[in-house]
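dumping the sequnces here before i forget
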Amino acid sequence: NAGVTQTPKFRILKIGQSMTLQCTQDMNHNYMYWYRQDPGMGLKLIYYSVGAGITDKGEVPNGYNVSRSTTEDFPLRLELAAPSQTSVYFCASSPGQKPQHFGDGTRLSIL
Amino acid sequence: GQQLNQSPQSMFIQEGEDVSMNCTSSSIFNTWLWYKQDPGEGPVLLIALYKAGELTSNGRLTAQFGITRKDSFLNISASIPSDVGIYFCAGQIHSGGSNYKLTFGKGTLLTVNP
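..and the predicted 3d for all of it:
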């Protein structure tokens, strides 16, 4: 049982490049979330999805896009990477109101 | 947006000591959660609280959902070196329809000296 799997684990990007952070879960959870974690801070919600085909903005959505074509996958897209997007990104899933399960994160540096 | 005040920011204790940390909010939450994050990993759920006044234990960990629904605390008894990590509180509210959003505290960094 893999749970929530995030790839890649680490990535370095140049300013202006684009990339997609992958997230997949095998627990058949309807709800999926993307967070960013900056040093000394809690997790900030970027985007979330309550089911396939449905996405909505969280607290800090600017500079990111998401899609949810299947229940399992919830990729996060950065179109024009900026230094302010250097962070650790966590994907999570939950069966509705129940607590969220987190992946191990993607550490992204933009130089 | 909603904010959680988590304290203390960090703690440095001796093995065997008890630990207490708490979160307060100006807003009411329906659920309180406590997570632990080890270096290089994602947060892992420790305890979930669903009712005001609820007191729940998980081994050496005990957490309570404040009666006002605006606060929660986590206690760790007889700390051991593997308790080292960052502890996060999170409040969840049903914001209408199918929205269940979490608001996280900034975390408490716990260091245990063997």
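Residues 57 and 63 of chain B are 6 Å apart (CA to CA).
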